[in-house]
Amino acid sequence: MNIHVAMAAVLCLALAPLATHARDIPSVPQAGKAAHSEREATTDHSTLEALKGPFKNGPEVTKACLSCHNTAGHQVMKSIHWTWEAKNPAIDKTLGKKLVANNFCGSILSNESRCTNCHAGYGWTDKNFDFSNQENVDCLACHDTTGTYRKFSTNAGHPLYEDIDSFEPMEGPPGAKSFKAPDLTNIAQHVGPSGRSNCGNCHFNGGGGDAVKHGDLDSSLKNPPKELDVHMAKDGANMVCSDCHTFNSHQPSGSRYAATAKDPHGLDLPRNDHNQATCESCHSSSPHQQARLNMHTGKLACQTCHIPAFARGGVATKTLWDWSTAGKRDANGKPLFIKDDHGHLKYSAAKGDFAYGENVRPEYKWYNGVVHQLTFTDRIDDTKVLELNRVEGSAQDPNARIWPFKVMLGKQAYDTENKTLVVNHVYGDDDTSLWKNYDFSKSIQAGMDYAGLPYSGKFGFIETRMNWFITHMVAPKEKAVPCAECHMRGEQGRLAAITDLYLPGRDRNRWVDLFGTLAIAGAIGGSTVHGLIRILTRRRKENTQ
Strand locations in 93-139, DSSP E? Predict the structure, then answer.
């Protein structure tokens, strides 16, 4: 047996496998339980004169809400949910959905009416949207408690105001459905604190569908079993999103553009510091009773051990999106759409090829709090695979820890002369829309013209990667990642890609091998000598009797 394997085995026995340390982590933090008790309604909104209705549209509801909550609109308008912009001080860059590139639908620019169905407002149809009008704020999206409020996919953030008997999405696949308009008056009279469904209506459906984007956020978390998520399960902590992503004056904590890599404050959420959306805020920086387990927290994010896989709730997440193959038609000249054996759309004439995954093991990378997110003005290197949001970190970086990620694979259009990613005009009932005529040359030119960005007129496709932090779907403590899955040799080891540190059980080192060999030989020799001495001593006693 290799000395490192032997040492790793001894180390794991000393630490106890991570999968068996259920008793070592504190119980559900009281912050979440306290927050639930405070969610009991203090106002019966159905009795308020301002909400008697009837309401013809969303802005009318908002106007009624603001008659009492007279600062709420201005608070929302300062939030990232409204501006879709975020300042990242670590790289001195303004980011947000309006500016950054991704390898899903690309950009909201020129596609606003389709993309802003997840905006916290009404009527963002183009770049002339009035961000200063608080009556455009959508209160119901976050505060509906009936579960019946839905924005409509192509209505620029508005819900339906009349029933639709037949609607077929422009991007396919073929097949029309009917939709009912929500009862705005009833919903307005039954508003309350936000729940998982409110947040999930947008965040579970990022990228255009359930589980498409994040991997650890999908509809299975609306009412998950404890095996899927110990925090959100009713028989677990029964927490909602805002228990961790706390709000100050409608400003949410937590950001994928600059996620907290290592929380220096530790246990702070119960003490009313509502700025941290971290595990440490509730569990502290030393959550285990065993000191040796706590030694791991300096170099491992909590999620690395406690989320063994994502997309575990029975909903597949998208793992690849290849735009370069879009535009194919069948023998009759109609746009081609193909589903796999599970009913997933694996090819779309409007969007290209897809791949999916369930129970996916994350990829692991060092992360120190700095994300280098690309925008459409950044010059790129097209001689290699392009990382759209590279994360910083290394074993030598005191601020870095090993984090789990979903790495989304993509292939998307770029300007081959200017070396920039391009804005693609995909949605719209016009001749230049990709989903109307399947012509990249027209759709890219239209998108870049709309964005006011330089474009050479020449495009190609580049392979891209995008990192998505895995922080949800926390498994029960008994299901944490076992030691052996990291402390092992070969490509199957979870930390095989982390090569800048020495890992017992995985790595070889001549001097450590020698020391280990001497230690084991010494232990065996000492035991042998001790046994011989006891045998000789016993015989001597027998001879003297």
Answer: 93-95
